Batch of 2 targets.
Target 1
Amino acid sequence: MSVEEREVILEVKHLKQYFRLDKRSVVKAVDDISFEIYKGETFGLVGESGSGKSTTGRAIIKLYQPTSGEVWFEGQRVDTKLSHSKKKAFNKKMQMIFQDPQASLNGRMKVEDIIAEGIDVHNLATSKKDRLNKVFELLETVGLNREHANRYPHEFSGGQRQRIGIARALAIEPSFIIADEPISALDVSIQAQVVNLMNQLKKERGLTYLFIAHDLSMVKYISDRVAVMNKGKIVEIAPSDELYHAPLHPYTKSLLSAIPLPDPRTERRRKRIGYDPSIHNYSQEKPKWLEIRKGHWIYGSDSELNDYEVELQGK
Ligand SMILES: Nc1ncnc2c1ncn2[C@@H]1O[C@H](COP(=O)(O)OP(=O)(O)OP(=O)(O)O)[C@@H](O)[C@H]1O
Ligand SMILES: [Mg+2]
């Protein structure tokens, strides 16, 4: 299906999320970003620590009131104050999975009750037995088993805890999941298992993911498209393959150069490219967005955009 025909599930328009620290200082955590996410895709959001990725996710899921801009979900504007029933409907459709499964699961609660929390809030079980059966089913869906329902989070490994987090998110059958660095805290050997599980669930349940990560190493494999974020701004958006083979923004190039290569010989020769933001002369030349190739968006001044066009012709 061509990109234009795809249904947009989430649209973020000129979103700003500022935090006032005191009378004089404001943190511009998210500073005028716009993007669309298509139904059924995995949209990666990458950038180094502090670039505003989590704030973006939290603003979308209504944990913050945005400073300005708009968020549209399934054709409805959701960044404004919603009526009780609309808020509840929204909460049922969008869920979040967190980086640290240890911190995001209540250690005093049994797995059964952790997973069933959403089921209770949204009255999705007809009886106690139905509730427990639903929990059993969810545990099996994420590769755990029913005996686990009676245990506490500390009795599990990191990867298993993340599976519990995923089961909890799935319990209310959402259509959209924001996964905020869901594998960063896990051993490398476990990361692929969790990613495979998420991919399988996505296919089976027609889910859409906003997948947040620090670096591009995993994200380029699992995302259909990737947005690169730096200091509150998105600087490049492209299909994963295109971003990988024809990166244009110097910050994207820097992130790509940080990925270790599997072959030890080429890995030894890998050069890290640094990123120096002072190369942009945006006080003289105002930057803007350009769709430089179909689906490939890049942020820059007129002269930079010209240079990018020339560079792209050679690729
Ligand atoms: N509630 C808050 N109050 C004040 N400042 C905040 C708040 N939340 C985030 N920030 C600041 O906003 C900026 C972006 O933070 P955010 O957590 O969104 O970054 P991130 O890209 O998710 O980073 P990481 O990769 O480390 O998780 C940082 O400078 C952070 O200190
Ligand atoms: Mg974060």
Note: Residues 133 and 146 are 9 Å apart (CA to CA).
Target 2
Amino acid sequence: MEETRTLYDKIGRPTLEAIVTRFYAKCFADPMIAHFFWNLDHDRLSQLQIDFVAGLLGGPRSYHGRPLTMVHADLPIRAPHFRRRQQILRESMQEFGLDGELAYAWLELEEKLQALIYTDKNPCNHH
Ligand code: HEM
């Protein structure tokens, strides 16, 4: 019976919201990736991110934003930006003392979405 609890249940809504809000605030201020978010509605983005993550972790599927491939297609995102984002997320989890195993499981789910966020457009690979 216990095993049917989702990651969302184990982390809990208040902690999820606190971590994601903190995570996006750090992204909006980060020297390496903040420029992607200039001129955008940060409150709206944070809310969409909370909804998306809730569904990703097995909670309510309330995300009503655009499909991830569509959102990121025209952005010049590369591997280092993706890794930086993951690092900021990990730091935000640590700030709120999230259990290590829960943190790892959450990060792994985000990692699996990489192909939806960017493809390797390095011209050196086009032989
Ligand atoms: C697993 C990784 C990622 C996930 C799950 C994710 C998720 C999302 C979501 C849910 C939205 C809101 C969609 C909407 O506006 O309808 C969004 C927007 C956005 N994301 Fe990501 N994202 C990821 C990686 C990245 C990375 C690596 C960057 C850049 C460093 C990035 C930059 C942006 C920007 C700039 C927007 C706003 C686009 C716009 O409104 O025009 N994302 N993302």
Note: The chain has a mean pLDDT of 94.
